[in-house]
Amino acid sequence: MRGRWRAGEIRELAPWAAVILASAVCIALRGRAPWLNDLPPRMMIPVGEWFNAFMDWFTGAFKGLFRAINWLLSWPLAGTQALLQWLPWPATIAGFCALAWAASGRRLALFTALALFYMALTGYWSPSMNTLGSVFISIPLALAAGFLIAVAAHRSARVDRVVQPMLDLMQTVPTFAYLIPILLLFGFGPVVGVVASAIYACPPMVRNTILGLRRVPREVLESGLICGATKRQLFRWVQVPSALPNIMVGVNQTTMAALSMVIIAAIIGGSADIGWEVLSTMRKAQFGQSLLAGIVIALIAMVLDRISWGFADRARTRAVRRRRPGRTGPLKPWFTALALMAVCVALAAFIPAARTYPEAWTVYPADLINDGLRFITANYSEVTNAIKHTVLFYYLLPLKVGLANAVSPFSWGFALTPAMIWGYALLTAVIAWRLFARHGGRAALAAVLVGALLYFGVTNLPWPPFILATTLLAWQVGGLRVAVLSLCGWLFMLFTGVWAQAMLSVYMCAAAVIVCALLGGALGVWAGYNRRVSNFLRPVNDTLQSMPLFVILIPFLMFFQVGEFTSFLAIIAYAIVPAIRYTEHGLRNVPAETVEAAQSMGATPWQVLWGVKMPLAIPEIMLGVNQTVLFALAMLVITALVGSRGLGQSVYIALSSADAGLGLVAGLGIALVAIIADRIIQSWSTGRKEALGLL
Question: Residue 506's pLDDT is what?
Answer without folding.
Answer: 92
